[in-house]
């Protein structure tokens, strides 16, 4: 082995030739493909190694333009996930009562027939809208879900209401699209509710932030607790969870009051500035301090620094999508970008990126077949019906789908299919979700391993990991690559994609599902490239297309501000062709035209009557260095990194309660209680405690058992209010992840 080759092994990254050489020396085979531990999605390119038919390890793909050889701990732990004793190997049919977990094995074809028969019966009795399919975080198979629903006639694609699309909606109806951050040219970067170090695949966010810091850019981090990005920050603003809108409104107050705005841009490209100027007078920094906990002096400092720095960008993250004032927070931040002149200018927030020279593959979505009748039949619109379909199709709010089962309003969903998502631990209101799972007529789970909710399923279908399939191809930016099979499937199952094709054919929708051929499906998508999937496989690390333009263009206002919506009406997102500071579309539909403040359902300032018994604010983290959402705790390498559910608590707060580091503690709200370990954490507000969401899985190899899903476990989703009048954003259905708690030592 050469010295250079040894360095490649140490860095866990190879070129194709290095990967082949290493495989030959080790007596292994190597396959270029995509990592699947944050997906499946178009994410990190890897080389997967196999010995004697067994998947052994991965290395980063240096040729990948996304991760450039980087692989995170999750990626390296992939073989343990594939061979986990928790893997589902055969389809299962419920034998006992719901919740008992008693099943009998059946075949894949039998499972498909049982599901199809049930859906046909219910369609005849209750209409196609009686079916809802839950959406995980966006996956490569998400559009297959949408395609099946449209072919069936149901609008009820159940989206979480707490991830990404909320930002997309509020930004788009304010400035025409969700903007990108120009880290490369920014002199000031505000990380707001964002955690770029390990909140996603190893695709460059951390690399870009480090490069900006080395270049001398200032960094401001706005979040309740210290995470790795705060260590790089010049200023940390530790706001109370769920108060982002209050902070943004107070920043607007400072900027408007001191007139540090881009007057020409405001005059030319903004609608409603005069109304804003009057509106934000009631949100001075002293008010903002009382609500958010950020000192008034620091609010002024951040507002002035942002307004007066020529090249400043705001990286707004998922943290703002978890409060009943989420739409207001996002709109207020968009207005900050606009009135300060930081919109679509170098170093600011860009409306249009570098144009890829790559054609767009054909989508599997059936966007042209949505009708007003389908929109009208949404059981629980994630966004008001007048704005639907939005971002790929119609959607109902994930949690409210379960609520419809219990309330039967406006009608009860009869069948719920959960592909790669766990409603009892991934969304709020776990106790009501369990009640709904007991009541719903028919429930289907599709997943790779055991799930927290599968004991309530009527049918459980195992699906292959992406390492056991050769589809779909993936694309992002200017990169297109085939997914290649690493090993043969370990059981009687197919892929998630093939499930929807097989079910579509069995339901009589074969024309819409390529008569069950995943190869024909991929070839259809590849027609703009004049390629077949087999031809694409001849390029082992894919095709990288040359950009049409190497640098972004700026000030694309006349184009972006004229975009028409995806709603059936096709009316423009911005009716005046300008930034919608004062939103006449929202006003017309009965929503506040200017961003406002709404308290979380349970907060120190909004519910002071609760603070005597529950004096601390609880919220949760959605990302960690080891896990993806509510899975992977059963992977030994990852569980060793983060073995226990721990609560971040300030040392002074812990000392006042006689709590020491690593003590077992009880965390109690008015809705439930958890038993977790204390982690004394100086980098958190003394009035706030936080925990990683998604805990339930055990890890057999390390001797960890499963945790209770409800009281006494570590599932933070049982702790929050789901009050229909208080816990939801009225426009975008964002759900609150803040409550009031008390913490005590476990005796």
Question: What do these coordinates show?
Answer:
29% of the residues lie in helices and 16% in strands. It folds into four domains: 16-82, N-terminal domain of TfIIb; 92-161 and 359-474 and 482-544, 3-Layer(aba) Sandwich (Rossmann fold), CATH 3.40.50; 176-353 and 559-588, Dimethylsulfoxide Reductase, domain 2 (3-Layer(aba) Sandwich), CATH 3.40.228.10; 608-745, Barwin-like endoglucanases, CATH 2.40.40. Residues 1-10 have low confidence and may be disordered. The strands form seven sheets. It has an eight-stranded mixed β-sheet. The chain has 747 residues and is α/β, with parallel strands linked by helices. The chain has 25 helices and 29 strands. The radius of gyration is 25 Å and the shape is globular. Helix 9 (244-257) runs antiparallel to helix 12, helix 9 (244-257) packs parallel to helix 14 and helix 16 packs across helix 18.
Write the layout of secondary structure elements.
Layout: H1 3-11, E1 13-14, H2 16-26, E2 29-34, E3 45-51, E4 54-61, H3 73-76, H4 78-82, E5 92-94, E6 103-105, H5 108-126, E7 131-134, H6 142-152, E8 157-159, H7 165-175, E9 180-181, E10 188-192, H8 205-215, E11 218-222, E12 235-237, H9 244-257, H10 263-269, E13 270-271, H11 273-279, H12 285-292, H13 296-308, E14 312-316, H14 326-339, E15 349-350, H15 372-376, E16 396-397, H16 398-407, E17 415-419, H17 423-426, H18 430-439, E18 442-447, E19 459-462, E20 474-476, E21 479-481, H19 496-506, H20 518-525, H21 533-536, E22 543-544, H22 557-560, E23 579-580, H23 584-588, E24 616-621, H24 636-641, E25 646-649, H25 651-655, E26 664-668, E27 673-680, E28 688-692, E29 739-745
Parallel strand pairs: 1-4, 7-8, 7-17, 8-16, 10-11, 10-14, 11-12, 13-23, 17-18, 18-19, 24-28, 25-27
Antiparallel strand pairs: 2-3, 3-4, 5-6, 5-19, 9-15, 20-21, 21-22, 24-29, 25-28, 26-27, 26-29
């Amino acid at each position: 082995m050469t010295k250079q080759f040894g360095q490649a092994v140490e860095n866990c990254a190879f070129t194709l030739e290095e990967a082949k050489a290493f495989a030959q020396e080790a007596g292994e085979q190597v396959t270029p493909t995509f990592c699947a531990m944050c997906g499946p999605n178009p994410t990190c390119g890897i080389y997967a190694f196999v010995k004697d038919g067994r998947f052994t390890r991965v290395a980063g793909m240096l040729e990948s333009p996304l991760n450039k050889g980087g692989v995170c701990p999750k990626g390296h732990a992939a073989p343990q996930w594939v061979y986990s004793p928790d893997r589902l190997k055969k389809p299962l049919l419920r034998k006992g009562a719901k919740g008992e977990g008693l099943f009998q094995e059946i075949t894949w074809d039998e499972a498909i027939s049982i599901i199809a028969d049930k859906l046909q019966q219910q369609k005849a009795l209750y209409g196609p809208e009686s079916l809802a399919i839950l959406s995980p975080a966006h996956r490569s198979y998400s559009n297959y879900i949408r395609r099946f629903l449209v072919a069936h006639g149901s609008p009820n694609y159940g989206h979480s209401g707490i991830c990404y699309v909320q930002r997309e909606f509020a930004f788009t109806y304010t400035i025409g699209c969700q903007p990108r951050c120009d880290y490369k040219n920014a002199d000031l970067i505000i990380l707001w509710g964002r955690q770029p170090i390990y909140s996603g695949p190893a695709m460059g966010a951390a690399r870009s932030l480090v490069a900006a810091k080395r270049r001398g850019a200032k960094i401001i981090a706005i979040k309740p607790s210290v995470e790795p990005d705060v260590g790089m920050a010049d200023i940390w603003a530790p706001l109370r969870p769920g108060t982002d809108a209050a902070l943004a409104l107070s920043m607007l107050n400072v900027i408007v009051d001191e007139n540090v705005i881009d007057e020409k841009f405001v005059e030319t490209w903004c609608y409603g500035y005069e109304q804003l100027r009057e509106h934000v007078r009631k949100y001075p920094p002293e008010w903002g301090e009382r609500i958010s906990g950020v000192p008034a002096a620091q609010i002024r400092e951040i507002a002035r620094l942002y307004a007066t720095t020529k090249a400043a960008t705001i990286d707004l993250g998922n943290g703002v999508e978890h409060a009943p004032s989420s739409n207001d927070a996002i709109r207020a931040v968009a207005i900050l970008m606009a009135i300060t002149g930081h919109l679509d200018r170098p170093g600011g927030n860009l409306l249009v990126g570098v144009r890829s020279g790559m054609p767009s593959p054909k989508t599997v979505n059936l966007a042209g077949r949505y009708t007003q009748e389908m929109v009208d039949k949404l059981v629980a619109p994630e966004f008001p019906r007048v704005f639907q379909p939005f971002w790929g199709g119609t959607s109902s709010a994930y949690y409210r789908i379960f609520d419809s089962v219990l309330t039967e309003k406006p009608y009860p969903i009869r069948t719920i299919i959960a592909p790669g998502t766990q409603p009892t631990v991934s969304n709020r209101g776990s106790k009501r979700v369990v009640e709904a799972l007991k009541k719903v007529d028919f429930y289907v789970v599709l997943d790779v391993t055991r799930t927290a909710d599968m004991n309530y399923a009527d049918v459980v279908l195992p699906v292959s990991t992406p390492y056991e399939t050769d589809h779909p191809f993936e694309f992002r930016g200017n990169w297109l690559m085939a997914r290649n099979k690493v090993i043969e499937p370990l059981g009687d199952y197919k892929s998630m994609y093939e499930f929807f094709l097989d079910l579509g054919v069995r339901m009589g929708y074969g024309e819409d599902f390529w008569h069950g051929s995943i190869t024909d499906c991929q070839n259809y998508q590849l027609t703009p490239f004049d390629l077949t999937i087999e031809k694409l496989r001849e390029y082992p690390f894919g095709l990288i297309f040359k950009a049409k333009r190497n640098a972004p263009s700026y000030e694309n206002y006349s184009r972006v501000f004229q975009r028409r919506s995806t709603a059936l009406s096709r009316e423009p997102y911005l009716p005046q062709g300008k930034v919608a500071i004062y939103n006449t579309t929202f006003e017309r539909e009965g929503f506040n035209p200017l961003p406002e403040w709404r308290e979380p359902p349970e907060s120190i300032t909004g519910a002071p009557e609760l603070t005597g018994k529950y004096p601390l604010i609880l919220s949760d983290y959605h990302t960690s260095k080891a896990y993806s959402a509510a899975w992977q705790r059963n992977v030994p390498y990852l569980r060793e990194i983060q073995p226990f559910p721990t609560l971040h608590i300030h040392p002074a707060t812990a000392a006042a309660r006689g709590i020491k580091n690593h003590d077992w503690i009880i965390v109690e709200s008015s809705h439930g209680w958890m038993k977790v370990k204390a982690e004394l954490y100086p980098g958190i507000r003394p009035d706030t405690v936080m925990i990683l969401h998604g805990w339930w899985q055990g890890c057999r190899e390390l001797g960890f058992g499963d945790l209770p899903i409800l009281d006494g476990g570590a599932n933070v989703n049982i702790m929050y209010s789901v009050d229909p009048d208080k816990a939801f954003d009225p426009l975008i259905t964002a759900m609150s992840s803040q409550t009031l708690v008390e913490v005590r030592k476990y005796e």
